[in-house]
Specification:
A hairpin with a 2-residue loop joins strand 2 and strand 3. By secondary structure, this protein is of the alpha+beta class. The longest helix is centred in the N-terminal third of the chain and has 10 residues. 26% of the residues lie in helices and 29% in strands. It contains four helices and six strands; from the N terminus they run αβββααβββα. The protein is globular. It has one domain: Beta-Lactamase (2-Layer Sandwich).
């Protein structure tokens, strides 16, 4: 299955994550719910081929050495994506995070006004921490 088609589905349906793993169909998370995007599971070697197609030669060498690769890809007119490629159970798996292109305004986030006052200070340190998918980037 072509990765570009899966990324288009993820972006156009406002999904957050795409999961590609051998023995399972491609799946994506929409509104917190994991849904399969196809019925056919990936066969051995198919995910590795997809991974090789999105890495350059230097990245492939690093992946062979470290067994993990983090990178970003863009599809014109579709969006930007953070990609984690890793080895799991002796096979390659891929997780893709949809990086939203539109930056929400502070007012749209429904955060307390004291937060805006704090982040506008000229000195100090503010940390935003939380679990994956909890909204830190937003």
């Amino acid at each position: 299955m072509e990765i570009d088609a899966l990324l288009k589905v993820l972006a156009h349906q406002d999904g957050s994550d795409l999961y590609l793993s051998t023995g399972a169909p491609p799946s994506a998370r929409f509104d917190g719910v994991l849904k399969p995007l196809a019925e056919q599971p990936f066969k051995p070697g198919e995910i590795a081929a997809i991974a090789a197609s999105i890495m350059d030669a230097e990245q492939r060498l690093e992946f062979d050495r470290e067994l993990e690769m983090n990178l970003a890809i863009s599809l014109a007119g579709v969006g930007r994506f953070r990609v984690n490629i890793f080895k799991q159970r002796n096979d390659v798996s891929i997780v893709v995070r949809n990086v939203k292109l539109d930056i929400p305004r502070f007012e749209d986030l429904n955060l307390p006004s004291v937060l805006l006052e704090t982040v506008m200070l000229k000195q100090g340190l503010m940390l935003f921490v939380g679990a994956t998918g909890s909204g830190k980037s937003t």
